[in-house]
Design goal:
Length: about 190
């Protein structure tokens, strides 16, 4: 892998993780404290539980990323699925701790690290594979967060993307911006 491509990959991965985090946080901001902890049914997770699980996963996977197995011996994955007695503030602090750990590890990587081998639950992965695995995992859970938040908010939900019926207008705006950027107008 060329150093230029490797550097681009690391920068893009960081951008994608940040965008994933931001998407979740835009959904979280719309929830009341009660909604944050409400599960659809006894077998489903609340948004708070998903946040707790993601944070536990991040701390396990990204702590000593290059030098220890991504499944840390002290992790209690099953405990991540219980948010009883937690507060919004505790969830937020845990969430930030997980993301900070991820970004510190990612920011510490260099292009030569990308083809190194790391393990997750004893299974070898290149650093690229491990990054992609986690990006996919977190995106999956953020999709759950957005879906749950949308369901909980009902008619008061504020869309996080292009509103229904607004695709053509959005595309026209994007084309106009592109035209202005290339023509030097604006």
């Amino acid at each position: 892998m060329s150093e230029t491509l490797a550097k681009h990959y690391l920068e893009d991965a960081a951008r994608r993780f940040r965008a994933t985090k931001e998407l979740a946080e835009r959904a979280l901001a719309q929830l009341t404290d009660e909604e944050l902890f409400r599960a659809p049914d006894a077998e489903s997770n609340s948004v708070a539980v998903i946040m707790k699980h993601m944070s536990g996963n991040m701390l396990s996977r990204w702590t000593d990323f290059l030098t220890s197995d991504g499944e840390k011996p002290g992790r209690s994955r099953d405990a991540e699925f219980d948010a009883a007695g937690e507060s919004r503030e505790t969830m937020h602090a845990r969430w930030e701790e997980g993301w900070s750990c991820l970004f510190a590890a990612l920011d510490g990587l260099t292009p030569v690290d990308l083809l190194r081998t790391v393990t997750i639950r004893g299974e070898p992965h290149t650093v690229v594979e491990a990054i992609n695995r986690q990006l996919t995992h977190y995106s999956y859970h953020v999709g759950q967060i957005v879906f749950l938040a949308r369901s909980l908010r009902g008619d008061t939900w504020q869309t996080l993307s292009i509103a229904r019926g607004r695709s053509d207008a959005f595309n026209a705006e994007m084309l106009e911006r592109q035209r202005q950027d290339t023509s030097g107008e604006g």
